[in-house]
């Protein structure tokens, strides 16, 4: 994982079309200084406005220290982030970003199968460049709706037959079983893309008795494990350690909602427990984690929690707010 997130003021240096509805954005500091280092699979939180924070994978080469590149798909059902990037953001503008953070790191393996769907290609790009540099055995299955909607095809063409491009309107869906079944057990499987693709890769690996794939989600699972507003939620007391203030979190509200009602600002983005933006340090009490961001080990040590979905297992929970 990268070190603690810092906020950077970044200038939009260039923007270019990578495919239909996909813009790449090159960001750098005004003094052309090195930006914080990142590893393959990392993302930044782009603060487009104080109330509009979105995560984007870094798709540039980590060795390029003075620039970060992200690519943004214009989502038809945008919650604001992609529309802002496509219609407001322009070269020369300043934005802020925190990070990089990495919850999709490239593990060391002898062989890799990467599976990308649509804009899910972004974190995979630096990964394939890295494993190619290491002369590892690898392949990439890259699916998309149409060829014209698939970003970075030119860049990927340098890898020849290691990259299998599968536009759905020409070839149908990716044949996951045919790709995963012949892999040796030590091969690492990576997937990023829409939820149905990730769920299908997870199901195929499970069916074939393989280790779980490494995945990164842009949205919560179809069956969210987040805060369901049912009557089984218990109310609890929340103590804000910086001020000593106490608030009650009722059964039908999240911590974030109560804090907002009290005029206390905490950065949020997905509000579904998968992006990590609202991660908050736990001072005392036992959190009831309901997120998809923390690892099992991080959940077990209870040092932090996602307060957009998490609740408390103890009657009182104290957070570093
Ligand atoms: Fe995304 Fe809480 S806002 S995890």
UniProtKB/TrEMBL annotation:
Q: What is this protein called?
A: Ferredoxin
Keyword Iron-sulfur in record: yes
Q: Name one Pfam family in it.
A: NAD_binding_1
Give the source lineage, highest ranks first.
Answer: Bacteria, Bacillati, Actinomycetota, Actinomycetes, Mycobacteriales
Looking at the record, the residues that make up the FAD-binding FR-type domain are: 5-107
Protein keywords: 2Fe-2S, Flavoprotein, Iron, Iron-sulfur, Metal-binding, Oxidoreductase
Q: Does the keyword Metal-binding apply?
A: yes
Question: Which Gene3D superfamilies does this one have?
Answer: 3.10.20.30, Nucleotide-binding domain of ferredoxin-NADP reductase (FNR) module, Translation factors
Q: Which molecular function GO terms apply here?
A: 2 iron, 2 sulfur cluster binding; metal ion binding; oxidoreductase activity
What cofactor does its activity depend on? FAD
